[in-house]
Amino acid sequence: MKILDAVLLALRTVWAQKLKSFFTLLGVIVGVTFLISVFAVVEGMNRYVQDDFAGSIFGINTITIERVWSGRGGRQDAETRRRQSRNPDITTTDAAALREEIPDIWYMSYSTERFMPEVRSGQNKRKNVRLIGVTDEYLALQGWEVVDGRGLTRIDDVRAIRVAVIGDAIAEKLFPDESPIGRDIRLGPFRYRVVGVLELQGGLIGIIRDAAVVVPWGAFQADFSRRRNVVRGIQVKFRTEEAMAAGEAVAEETLRARHRLRPGQENDFDIETASEVLDAWNTIKNVLLAAGPGLVAVALVVGGIVIMNIMLMSVLERTREIGIRKALGARRIDITRQFLAESATLSTVGAAIGVAIGTALAKLVDIAFPLPASVPVYAIVMGVALGLMVGIVFGVYPALRASRLDPIVALRYE
Amino acid sequence: MMMPPDNNTVILTRDLKKDYELGAETVHALRGVDMKIDKNEFVAIMGPSGSGKSTLLNLIGCLDTPSSGHYWLGGEEVSQLDDNDLARIRNRQIGFVFQTFNLLPRTTALHNVELPLIYAGLPAKLRHERAKGALEAVGLADRITHHPNELSGGERQRVAMARALVNQPSLLLADEPTGNLDSATSREIMEILVSLHDRGETILLVTHERDIAAYSDRLITLRDGVIETDQRHTIGEPVA
Predict the structure, then answer these.
(1) Which of A39, A146, A147, A366 is least enclosed, having the fewest CB within 10 Å?
(2) Closest residue to A1, CB basis, from B83, B98, B118
């Protein structure tokens, strides 16, 4: 008997007893569903953290120097808060010094931002806007593409020209029917001319960019800043991770010297990198990837044992059939193959159902949450392969039992 | 060493013995059977229960191997073959017809008839054609897609006969083929066997009914594991 005949025979048996087959396969279905879901979520989270989260907020190979301020890091005791409030500001002079000292800089910028209750143009207005004053390399450093008009230049900054590059959400709201380029917007009492529109980012964290108004540092200083030359953050981007690590060390040394910190004294500033976030995520991911296969394995073994039991019952129920087949010329290998193909087909069908459910779950997560869950192809291949394997491994014993039946005894079996 | 049988001999046995261990006791089911059946004979075997009838049938049908002695089937010594070779012999040389029909319940008449061809390794298309032909030959052309539970007892036995013949075996083994049928249907089945015999088939029939045995042209009776009588008679003539 050929393998294909055996598989067709198995499919016919599975189909003839749909409900029984389903319950038989529950273990394998659950196992593979779980496998697919975990991989989909991990894969999605991975992309989210690496590309969107770490990429957009912190930037790849980018360090951000900030003053340690008391609002951060959750609960702190009063003493810590008091100490932090004495920390010196980060200034444009610090930035200039860092630019001197740090080697291999790709892009460098500094910025300050504030919350604006609204921005308007004629009758149109958009509430809750993030206003950012930046130096010229900021957009390039953040990787924010200008899709309409132009970005900000050094001249804009130095001359404190009132121009603005606006996020997509703001452009939509203020200029629904026309190009915003060349039009004026009102920020508080000031008029700024729109020179560019940022590419839509969308999604959960897109709000950071899409609802932003970016203006030159000089103009921001003149119109909105109460404290001269104080920056919220200095950003330095490097081409490689190694350059970033070296640059981070130089930045720390330089600032410690400028702030006159003695050896052993804690930093009174903060240097952040995306790698911190990535480290945290990698820890979570490793836990998931370590615990995942364990749970999948347990489900598959349980599923395999159920399949083995069902197959043993099936062999018993079909003793007479086995006798008939043997009388008609089936060899041991034919009977073994028939039952092996049946258990393998059974569990592969289960795995396929698991893949379908897992993929549907991932799709659901993708739609319901901003998490971009997606099922990687290798997870599907793995799921089906595991299902097939379970069927073969746990089908061997029942198949061998069936093949060893004595045809005379089997034919007489009632 | 025995001489192998001539071309015209289908079954030849010499001193065929079968012992069973039953606990500490040894049961001598067959105590030495010498038998020769030629091509196109229609032989009935009778005997009371415990006479060794079933044991002999199992040996002739290559479902079992003898404890000692020799058995040639179609010129090949089969008494000492292993499992796989016995399966091949059953597939190619023997067509079984059972008392309980022994059809696979969840498949069609056609698939049942195809089974021996599947194990013979025939491609699907050829299998289909030959199985259809065999069903037509027993008058079931309009029943090929029916499942066994949709068929009458007589129809089921005819499916079983089509299955037994589809691989063109050298021997048709019928074990109480009418045991589960009423007398009208029994007659119908026996008439098919007679016409198969007329066509040239070699048939070995096991029965305990004298009027069924009367369809044969030779009667062998067994008692206590040996052949008691072996006589030819005219078909239809009542047997003693």
Answers:
(1) A147
(2) B118
